[in-house]
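Assess the record.
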Amino acid sequence: MNTIRIRILRDVPPRSDGEFVLYWMTAARRTTHNFALQRAVAIARQVQRPLLVLEALRVGYPHASDRLHRFVIDGMIDNAARCEAAGVAYHPYVEPEPSAGRGLLAALAGHACAVVTDDFPTFFLPRMLAAAVPQVLCRFEAIDGNGLLPLRVPERAYPTAYAFRRFLQARLPAWIADAPDPDPLAGPPLPRLPSLPLDVAARWPAAAFDLDLARLPIDHGVAPTTLRGGERAARACLQRFVARALDRYDVDRNDPGLDATSGLSPFLHFGHIGAHEVLAAVAPGWPAPPEGRRPDGSRDGWWGLPPAREAFLDQLVTWRELGFNNCGHRTDAGCYDGLPPWALATLERHATDPRPRLYTLDELDAARTHDALWNAAQRQLAREGRIHGYLRMLWGKKILEWSPTPRDAFLRMVHLNDRYALDGRDPNSASGIAWCLGRHDRPWGPERPIFGTVRYMSSDNTARKLKVRDYLRRHGP
């Protein structure tokens, strides 16, 4: 692994008297294709100590719910089985009440030679990591396993997909081969950890995976979906997509009735699968762009693959990594004030325009509007934890139209998306919501009430453009 992916939080040698190397799994919640786990294994081999994997789940994170907890716990089940088979100690901890987990990391770090964790650029994880630094007195490293391109390769945030695509086309080929080990736990077995330190095991016992979520202080109004989380489910989803839908992705993806998108975004968000594994399945053996192809920012042809695969890779690579690029280089990427100056100016000029309709947040949450297509999209979000990709854009545009101010609209989108979406609270959520208000876009004429020169969308035009009858039937009241 290239050292650019390693951020050293405490630069001291691994402790020679430590009992184990600790991998604090927070974002890359998987045991394969995982740079951070790979790094922890390498240090454990270097110091000849056991490896301990800690995967913890708080109850106090924003929008904690039965849905999000269940999805993470599904992944814990897979990780526990995989670590047991590899002879690696694994400690899953689910907080029974707010702050009950406080002190767990410090207690384990007190027994550790070194601590390795994931480096994730948004949600509450950066604050959590900063708060952890004073508690970890041994060597402490955070590993960037977020995407194909390390976060620190670009030196700035890119404002548009076109500009970032040109940068990627120039720099990405050199980084494609810098892929994580498919199975970091393979190879000579590490020393076994006989048991967890007694002071830790007694105070922070391992979670029972069949625990009753109703007993936890989380949002029980957001129920689990039928989609199971975890590494095995993620890999099955990828295999289904490649076998059944990938080769018509460019044609079918915008048809809500076909539901021809990959379905991978929840798994990518929770780290149950990584971008390198997806790339390997979609473009097996891809070495470099076709000879003579220059980095011109074009969406088509650069990969030298069939159009459907090119279209999917533009989503996986350009748009996904653009979200990480902005969150990694901007502190305001998830804020209304982080919109482009032109978008802020035009929205504020029209902030007091009369709204044809105003809905409260509760009315939007319950899908009680006059617009059948918008209601269907909101119901899909509330029931399934996702919205069809094209309709997600319409969903955001209409919230702008029906909210008292643009700032209110932004906050409502964040709330509804982060509460219900399995792929919410993510750099792609930040960029997708902000796109509805002008980020990564350009001014569009003619200037309209409410929208100004922000790109306009309407339900009537969308219904004429797409086949929505089956979608409306499926997500009706």
